[in-house]
From TrEMBL:
PANTHER family associated with the record: CYCLIC DI-GMP PHOSPHODIESTERASE PDEF, SIGNALING PROTEIN YKOW
PROSITE patterns with a match to the protein in the record: EAL
Highest taxon of source: Bacteria
Designated name of the protein: EAL domain-containing protein
GO MF annotations in UniProt: cyclic-guanylate-specific phosphodiesterase activity
Region (Disordered): 316-344
Amino acid sequence: MTGDRRLGSFVVVTGGLGVAILAAASADDLAHLAHLAQADADERWRATGILLACLLLLVAGIAYRAASLDQGRTFRELLLRVSAEQQEQQRRETLHREVLAVMEPGAMHMVFQPITEVGTGRVQGYEALARFPEHGPDHWFPAAEEVGLGTRLELRAIELALATGLPRVPADQYVSVNLSATTLLDPALLELIDPGVGDRVVVELTEHSMVAVYDDVVAALPALRARGVRLAIDDLGVGYGSMGHVVRLSPDLVKIDRSLITGISVDNAQSSFVAAMVAFTAAIGVSLLAEGVETEGEAQSLHQLGVGLAQGWHFGRPSDLGPTPEPARAASPGSVSATGLRAD
């Protein structure tokens, strides 16, 4: 073809059903090809070749369109799907960068909520909770998991918790950190826990996170316990395991989920459940902790039922501890003595 004239664009569209090739040629383009077909031999051959290519592309497009329609899809739907996939990929890339950013120094920090003896108000330890410049942990930890950075973010939180918490906590108290089963199985976890302070560290493992790797978790625990690290099972009562799992793991502490504590002072069913948990944990030598205690009535009910440990706003809100931790509140005096976290 002579001059700078070009034919319409060729577009390749990829999708889950295959590849569609669309040829777009304007009326002027076709007229130009017809003119070339009447020119000299070289131009005629070139024009003929281009026309044949266009026809083949058109036939391919028709065949693909028919196949797409057979599967309930139109070209418009296919293009929309491609656009949606591109937007999803961009969203994930952006989320990946944002998660990496909150792991940078100064972005994430830890606060600490006291874990208290219900009857005496004596603080036994602190649970470390992550805080972020924007959004909360319920956003960032699932987001990190989605983009393959879940373990990395948890390890970063644990690193900060131990580095900032242990120096501020009295030597006879501990720092409790949250982690998933996947993070517990990561060799990098042991590297973060100095053997000299292992007996002041408690790892909280949610019951539901162990389902897929339960046997691996059981096999990994001896290495942690060899450093003095103790185990807590979090959210008991809302997970997918059984009491048999708790017995086999032999945790040092079991935490009752806040959903079973809120309103316990006026709910007989909740009181009965907690009473059963008190008897169960006492029988196997495990400490019991109630989460989310916010009222004096709840604290009194727990004390009367024999629950030894609790945390929640009634006993102390999360804080950065500062130079001197704020003393926690005790429940009203009762006849049942509180018990502490089991020490091996």
